[in-house]
Please model this.
Amino acid sequence: MKRNLLSTLIGAVFALGAGAAHAQISDGVIKIGVLNDMSGLYADLTGPGSVVAAKMAIEDFGAAAKGMKVEVVSADHQNKPDVGSTIARTWYDVDKVDVIVDVPTSSVALAVNQITREKGRAFLSSGAATSDLTGKACSPNTIHWTYDTWMLANGTGSAIVKTGGDSWFFLTADYAFGHALERDTEAVVLKNGGKVLGKVRHPFPGSDFSSFLLQAQASKAKVIGLANAGGDTINSIKQASEFGIVKGGQNLAGLLVFLTDVKALGLQTAQGLIFTETYYWDRDEASRAFAKRFSAQAPRNNYPTMVHAGVYSSVLHYLKAVEAAKTDDGTKIIAKMKELPTDDPLFGKGTVRADGRKIHPAYLVEVKKPSESTGPWDLYKIRATIPADQAFRPLNQGECPLVAQAK
Amino acid sequence: MTEIFGVPTQALFGQLLIGLINGSFYALLSLGLAVIFGLLNIINFAHGAQYMMGAFVAYLLLNKLGIGYWWALVIVPLVVGASGVVIERLMLSRLYKLDHLYGLLLTFGLALIIQGLFRNEYGSSGQPYQIPEQLMGGQNLGFMFLPNYRAWIIGASLVVCLSTWFVIERTRLGAYLRAATENPQLVQAFGVNVPRMITLTYGFGVALAALAGVMAAPVYQVSPQMGADLIIVVFAVVVIGGMGSILGAVVTGFGLGLIEGLTKVFYPEASATVIFIIMAIVLLVRPAGLFGTQK
Model:
């Protein structure tokens, strides 16, 4: 008891000392760590672009004018959980990083999720897909921002089943992410009265998918669902076009496709593909303005993907919460972020749920025909908007322990 | 319909054909490696990067100069082969007296640098490249739909492999080459310019990788890591066939393509590992490889 009192006193003295310099922000600086794939297959859709997005958020928040000192550091996790964990620990323990953002690759994100909780810091995931981050693995220190496997499955899966694509064959990347995406999509297909005729698990990463595509063709399924990402999706779509899959009357459903993937495929090959995104640069005036500014600073003048938009939006909301709560304590800030409504030019008004799920609308998009496109990044048309309250998994279905507590 | 282990025979034919097509790429790439190893004793780890360069140069020719696929088949191997000649003259030629390991390390480093440079310039998600118009579409063979482009790959690869084998094993030039690796001093004494021959051989091996790159561009993602994904498998092919054996590289390339194709039907999860399992078995039974000779 005595010792507790003593440590509280010491803590208070330190807090006062820091407070004199700057409210309750540890060491006077807010350090944001962008942790993602800087060199591998996800580098274009996350990578250095996410650093640009984070810096834009700091600028737009007006941190300098408000007298807040905000720094951005970044590192490459190479899509390996062990590398990502080491960086996260070093950042938290040695470099005094307050919040880690982005972190694509579900396996790495789950590891960072755990470490952040242990250290009582904050984790804003934009790049990761697995819906477990707000399900079984949910944490009071994590917010899952941009999208997840449930939302992709729900958006793309139900739209396709409802327009007649009621028999499916899955081409699944054989690891945690692919399995999660396949599981969530299959559930949606069955719920909407469709059926699954078969599935094949391909090694990750793969380069030749023709053998699997032939199996899909032989299954006579109306829809071939691609439960993979990045280079695997690009190769699958490229080769499906070569094997005349779409001409033969079957349709492809890309379950996780990014702007940069479509750009890499070219419209000739990708046209007609339907999938779900939560941000497209050409949706309205605000999203266009953001994309133009982003492109001017991004590597190779790329346009932003939804992951980049999510990094921008999450960092902006984080800084607002820091301003309101006058602290950078991870657990308190995440609680504050859940309390405050979100509002930014890219995702509009929204909320953060008790399980850490950020809620906003999703868009069902279709890739344009080459004749419809007017510029190098004019790639999608928006077919439907899925309202925010329907886009994500209902709070009570995720098995998140935090939600049970709240009840 | 007749079935084998629950798979209709017709579907099986299709899968075998696909396996053969993938085997064509393995054969083309392992051929280049085998030529370089057989004649220079260099384990060329930059082969995957050179294959990637082939695909990228084809993309650049099309998009910057408007030169299409058919000319690319000729120009790209020349350009990338020439870069190989420069590498051999400036760097590799200094390592012949040293252990294999030094050549391996040098080429491995080169591969990383080349991939890094391309990634920096073009990003990681790759570039689009269309199938040439003349080869679009395909034939319905009854048991499967065979895209014309795949049929072309298999034919072209067979022709290239067989003619390379013929030149090296059955012509006077090939005899010089083989003699020069056995005893360079003696061959030089006969008035043959051995260093130049070796330089050109390396250039030729690299050109083969680049040719495979051009052929891959319309069907695979043209991205900086496309070579890194493939090169490990190709090394396994070379080891199984016997390091340096040209016939071994070609036959094993096609053979393993077939085996991999079958695995993709019966147990797809293992299709990435089956080649390495075979490699382990072959190394246990015949350490020099199926077609290799113990030196």
